[in-house]
Design brief:
Layout (H helix, E strand, L loop, with lengths): L4 H24 L16 H10 L5 E4 L4 H6 L4 H8 L23 E4 L7 H14 L5 E6 L6 H13 L3 E7 L2 E2 L2 E2 L10 H7 L3 E6 L3 H19 L2 E6 L20 H9 L2 H11 L5 H24 L19
Parallel strand pairs: 1-2, 1-3, 3-4, 4-8, 7-8
Antiparallel strand pairs: 5-6
The structure holds thiamine diphosphate and magnesium ion (MG).
Length: about 325
């Protein structure tokens, strides 16, 4: 597949946009104005950017506790996300959800939750709704490697396979569940993708730190799903840089080695792709620095918006934040 130049530039932009937003969250977290736990995806941006750009705006996505990149990648609003993390009424979940409960129907982002595996059946249900309505959308379910260990994952894969639902599973395999590596959780000879293929759906593994690989694999899988071939499972290998939950680094704890961390840092998806685009003469160093500056300004503005927004009215605490009935 030949990718057009505009898409390549946008892939770079989207990764940088996600990175800068999360680095700013990390920098300002100690101010204690963001009072919810935050799970940062720094290091994993290529999956969010590549899958997000391959999806259409009328496709649905559901996500996990580590949802910032998925939401922004899907075309979410940065001011609405930062305001949500600040607990403000202008947040995408009206300030009632925080970092782990992002929801925004306007971009088809149908929710993220803190309970591991919780959104998988929601994504499967969205796939069923799409099939019943005979629409051309698809439902994308983001999940982590550990989430494949939840019973609901197996039930949902089976349901989607049996009914040939238009569902894309995107597994970000960052090799850890909090402090537990895959090696203490799953048998050594197991491939997650092979296991899922054994359950009756198509699947592939790819380099989740190469945004072109992610975009290309996601686009191919999505066309197959739209063509009626049923669900598809994509596993992308990648690595989380910061602690499981929070703004800091935690390599000193000892659950992973500095050597492993440094090897993954060398595979930082952003400079790798930036160098590729420069070598293809698609972008110059000065255009990159313009891009960086404009993203920094946009992020700064989103934080000002969040800080200046009011808190929700306590009288509305029991009102739901979810969907308006548009019928
Ligand atoms: C049902 C359930 N069990 C345990 C937890 C605690 N928990 C929160 S995140 C997490 C790790 C999930 O790992 P993975 O799915 O690989 O995603 P990652 O954090 O690596 O992105 C765990 C065990 C939870 N929130 N819900
Ligand atoms: Mg994981």
């Amino acid at each position: 597949m030949q990718l057009n130049d505009k898409i390549k530039i946008e892939l770079l932009h989207r990764m940088k946009w996600i990175r800068c937003s999360e680095e700013t969250i990390a920098e300002r977290y100690a101010e204690q104005k963001m009072r919810c736990p935050t799970h940062l995806c720094i290091g994993q941006e290529a999956v969010s950017a590549g899958v997000g750009l391959a999806l259409r705006s009328d496709d649905y996505a559901v996500s996990t506790h580590r949802s910032h990149g998925h939401y922004l990648g899907k075309g979410g609003s940065l001011p609405a996300m930062i305001a949500e993390i600040y607990g403000k009424a202008s947040g995408c979940s009206k300030g009632k959800g925080g970092s782990m409960h992002l929801i925004d129907q306007s971009v088809g982002f149908m929710g993220s939750t803190a309970i591991v595996g919780n959104t998988i059946p929601v994504g499967a249900g969205l796939g069923l709704a799409i099939q019943l309505e005979d629409s051309e959308s698809i439902s994308c379910i983001f999940l982590g490697d550990a989430t494949t260990e939840e019973g609901v994952f197996a039930e949902s894969v089976n349901f989607c396979a049996q009914r040939k639902l238009p569902v894309l599973f995107v597994c970000e395999n960052n090799f850890y569940s909090v402090y537990s590596p895959l090696s203490v959780r799953q048998p050594a000879n197991r491939s997650i993708t092979k296991m899922v293929k054994g359950m009756g759906i198509q699947g592939e593994v790819g380099d989740g730190n190469d945004v072109l690989v992610v975009y290309t694999m996601a686009s191919k899988a999505i066309s197959k799903i739209r063509a009626g071939e049923g669900p598809y499972f994509l596993e992308f290998t990648t690595y989380r840089w910061r602690e499981h939950c929070g703004p800091n680094y935690d390599n000193h704890i000892g659950y992973r080695t500095e050597k492993e961390f440094m090897e993954w840092k060398k595979k930082d998806p952003i400079p790798l792709f930036e160098r590729k685009l420069v070598s293809e003469s698609l972008i110059t160093a000065s255009k990159i620095s313009e891009m960086d500056q404009s993203i920094e300004k946009e992020v700064e503005k989103a934080f000002v918006f969040a800080e200046e927004s009011p808190f929700p009215n306590p009288g509305e605490a029991n009102q739901h934040v979810y969907f308006e009935n548009t019928q």
